[in-house]
Each structure stands twice: as structure tokens, then as C-alpha cells.
């Protein structure tokens, strides 16, 4: 019976048909890490890809089965496939030990990693800071000291699988290795479960966790705090906590998208100062500095204040402040200002600047072309 829905194993792993052992392993490692159920909990599609890649790797990494697959296709290596992520782990114990630091048959599953998002005030990024976050998560059970046993006794070896965590099932063609249904793959069983944690060794609780905000960290960065994820089952190693930082706004500055240590600020200046030149006050992270403005500074021109920005993340040194000059336009000018502007109007019409001259030339040309268009 041909299974037409099954994808070609080489295609699944994205490797050529003559790929070597190392290439296969590298491809599988990448896919497994990408779609690992710990990374994407509850993502059914990712789990499906994970299983598919695992099945492809299981076949292609075995020279005999690979040869059969090359000759006969999926029919040559027919097996049940992986029903769930746990049965993948049971077949790839060693490899997963390398990949994920151990969640394999014969061991208690390590705790899953957690991800949280926190808001960080802009000032914390400028100074660096220590924050305490209070996190609701599972914590080790105090009653049984994480053992899961009511009497404090260590879990006993599972008799169904003889401590192996897996059993062999005969499918008719092949003997398949399967997760032991009795102990769930651990190889050990709690005989008298702790009533507080129902034998899991962990209970819902709350933890205060210290998070160090590094100076100059960029918005959206994720900090990894080892061991602060969920505790493992019955004292197995915990997962990690991933803290994603959302940096709050600053009332004056925006961070540059080119260099997050650089700060942008709009500085409105009186029009006469932009025309005639003079000093303007520009804010920096430390206070303000006086900056000389050239005569005839157009609106939108930028002035750089070296070293006035944020500390560079992990590099040392500081970013710059880029002051963008804006013309200040009073909405309701006083009578005095109005008179001055009217006097300006009488002369400025006859003294265009370079931008206006270039623009008026182009407009004139455009109008003449328009005249020709109308005639044709
Ligand atoms: Zn307990
Ligand atoms: Zn068992």
C-alpha cells in the first residue's frame, strides 16, 4: 500500500540524495531545534514537522535502512512513524542528550522553559539596573522535597520495562521501540505518591527572580536566565526562563534604528536663528549642551553631539545624539512679530535661496512641457 501523502525524506531534511552523515545530522539538528515542542509548546504543526524530520533522520542515518529507502522508497522502510514527541525521544535518546541536555528514555523529564515579557523603563537601559520580577510558576514541592514520594522513598525501578523506559513491540515486520506505558518513559515509578504534588515533585507557586538589565540593551532583546523555568519532574533539572524586554519610551529621545545606542531628538529653533546662525541648546542623556548652528541651516538638517547617546551594549563607549533642526512656527504671532514678518516678506521674495531657485527652475520647465503636451 503506497502512502502518497508522505514526503520524500531527503526533501524533509532539505539535503541532497548523496548527503553525508554529518550533513544529515546538521540538517536534522537544525529542524529539531527549530520545531522542538519545548520551543513551540502547543504548536501542532511544529510538532508534526518535528516528527517528520525525526522519522526521516531515523531512516537515513541508518545505512541499511537508507539503502532500502533509496531502492524501494517508503515501502522499503515502512514503520509506524512517531505518534508523539515522547516516542521520538525514546528512539533518539543519545542524540537528544546532545541536543537538549537530556530528555531521554530512562531519565525524568527536565522542566520546560518559560518565556515572559517585561516592560523596562528607558532609564534602566541608560544606567543598567537590577529588577525583581514576581513570577507565578511551578516550584519544587516542599512536602516531599521534590521526590514525589509520600514516604520520602526514591522512586522504584519500573518492572514493566525493567527500568529502560521503553518496551519493544512487534509490528509484524519490525520490532519497534516504544515509550513504556507504565512509567511514561522514565524507567522509575513512585509507589506511594506525595498527596501535595500528586507525585510530580512540583506544585504551583510564586518566585521572585532577579533580572539584570544590561546597559544599552536593545528593545525586544531576550535574556536567558538558566534554571528559572519550570522545575523538572521529581527533582530533574529545571528549564530556563527567557525574559523578553520591551523598552519604554523617553519623553525626548527616540532610539535610532541604525544604531540603538544613537538617540534622535527634534529641536525646534527660531527661524531667524536658523537663518543667521547662533547657539542652540541640545539635550543629551547627561543634560544639555550648547551647539553652534551654521547660518542658513535648512529645516531637517541634523547636528551630531558625539558621545551624548546610550552606552553601547556589550561594546563599551557611547552612541551619539542626532539633533534634527525644526523651524519653530508660532501659531498666533504677536503684532510685533507679525510686523517683523511682513517686513521680511517684502524683501525675501526677491532673494530666493538655492532650494527655492532650483525648485522654481524645475517648475518652469514642467509648465513649458505641459504647454507642449496640450498642443500635441
Ligand atoms: Zn510532593
Ligand atoms: Zn516502565
Detailed description of the structure:
The structure is a single chain. With 376 residues, the protein is α+β, with helices and mostly antiparallel strands. The chain has three domains: 9-100, Helix Hairpins (Orthogonal Bundle); 114-155 and 190-247, Sandwich (HSP40/DNAj peptide-binding domain); 254-329, Urease metallochaperone UreE, N-terminal domain (HSP40/DNAj peptide-binding domain). The protein is built from ten helices and 15 strands. The strands form six sheets. A four-stranded mixed sheet has the order 10-11-15-14. A three-stranded mixed sheet has the order 1-9-8. Helix 2 (21-35) packs antiparallel against helix 3 (44-60). The longest helix has 22 residues, at 354-375. The relative contact order is 0.09. The structure holds zinc ion (2 copies). Residues 141, 143-144, 148, 194, 196-197, 201 line the site of one zinc ion.
**What does the largest sheet look like?**
4 strands, mixed
Main-sheet strand order equals 10-11-15-14
State the CATH architecture of the largest domain.
Sandwich
Bound molecules: zinc ion
Q: Helix/strand/pairing class, anyone?
A: alpha+beta
What's the CATH topology name of the largest domain? HSP40/DNAj peptide-binding domain
How are the elements arranged and paired?
Elements: H1 9-13, H2 21-35, H3 44-60, H4 63-72, H5 85-91, H6 93-100, E1 114-120, H7 122-127, E2 129-140, E3 156-157, E4 166-170, E5 175-179, E6 188-189, E7 202-213, E8 222-225, E9 241-247, E10 254-255, E11 263-270, H8 271-276, E12 278-284, E13 287-293, E14 302-305, E15 321-328, H9 335-348, H10 354-375
Helix pairs in contact: 2-3
Bound molecules: zinc ion (2 copies).
Amino acid at each position: 500500500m503506497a502512502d502518497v501523502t508522505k514526503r520524500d525524506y531527503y526533501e524533509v531534511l532539505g539535503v541532497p540524495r548523496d548527503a553525508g552523515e554529518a550533513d544529515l545530522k546538521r540538517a536534522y539538528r537544525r529542524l529539531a531545534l527549530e520545531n522542538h515542542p519545548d520551543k513551540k509548546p502547543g504548536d501542532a504543526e511544529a510538532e508534526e514537522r518535528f516528527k517528520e524530520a525525526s522519522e526521516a533522520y531515523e531512516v537515513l542515518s541508518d545505512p541499511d535502512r537508507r539503502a532500502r529507502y533509496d531502492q524501494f522508497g517508503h515501502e522499503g522502510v515502512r514503520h509506524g512513524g512517531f505518534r508523539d514527541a515522547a516516542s521520538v525521544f525514546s528512539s533518539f535518546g543519545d542524540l537528544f542528550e546532545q541536543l537538549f541536555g537530556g530528555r531521554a528514555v530512562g531519565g525524568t523529564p527536565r522542566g520546560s522553559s518559560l518565556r515572559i515579557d517585561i516592560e523596562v523603563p528607558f532609564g534602566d537601559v541608560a544606567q543598567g539596573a537590577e529588577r525583581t520580577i514576581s513570577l507565578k510558576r511551578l516550584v519544587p514541592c516542599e512536602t516531599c522535597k521534590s521526590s514525589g514520594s509520600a514516604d520520602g522513598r526514591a522512586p522504584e525501578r519500573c518492572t514493566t520495562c525493567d527500568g529502560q523506559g521503553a518496551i519493544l513491540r512487534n509490528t509484524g515486520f519490525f520490532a519497534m521501540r516504544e515509550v513504556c506505558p507504565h512509567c511514561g518513559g522514565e524507567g522509575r515509578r513512585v509507589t506511594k505518591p506525595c498527596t501535595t504534588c500528586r507525585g510530580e515533585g512540583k506544585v504551583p507557586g510564586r518566585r521572585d527572580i532577579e533580572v539584570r538589565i544590561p546597559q544599552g540593551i536593545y528593545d525586544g532583546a531576550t535574556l536567558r536566565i538558566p534554571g528559572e523555568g519550570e522545575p523538572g519532574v521529581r527533582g530533574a533539572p529545571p528549564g530556563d526562563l527567557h525574559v523578553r524586554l520591551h523598552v519604554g519610551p523617553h519623553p525626548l529621545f527616540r532610539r535610532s534604528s541604525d544604531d540603538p545606542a544613537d538617540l534622535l531628538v527634534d529641536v525646534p529653533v527660531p527661524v531667524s536663528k536658523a537663518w543667521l546662525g547662533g547657539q542652540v541648546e541640545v539635550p543629551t542623556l547627561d543634560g544639555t549642551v550648547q551647539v553652534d548652528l551654521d547660518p542658513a541651516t535648512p529645516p531637517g538638517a541634523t547636528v551630531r553631539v558625539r558621545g551624548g547617546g546610550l552606552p553601547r551594549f556589550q561594546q563599551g563607549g557611547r552612541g551619539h545624539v542626532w539633533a534634527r533642526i525644526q523651524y519653530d512656527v508660532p501659531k498666533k504671532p504677536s503684532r510685533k512679530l507679525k510686523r517683523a514678518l511682513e517686513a521680511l516678506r517684502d524683501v525675501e521674495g526677491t532673494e530666493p535661496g538655492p532650494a527655492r531657485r532650483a525648485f522654481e527652475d524645475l517648475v518652469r520647465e514642467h509648465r513649458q512641457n505641459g504647454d507642449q503636451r496640450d498642443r500635441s
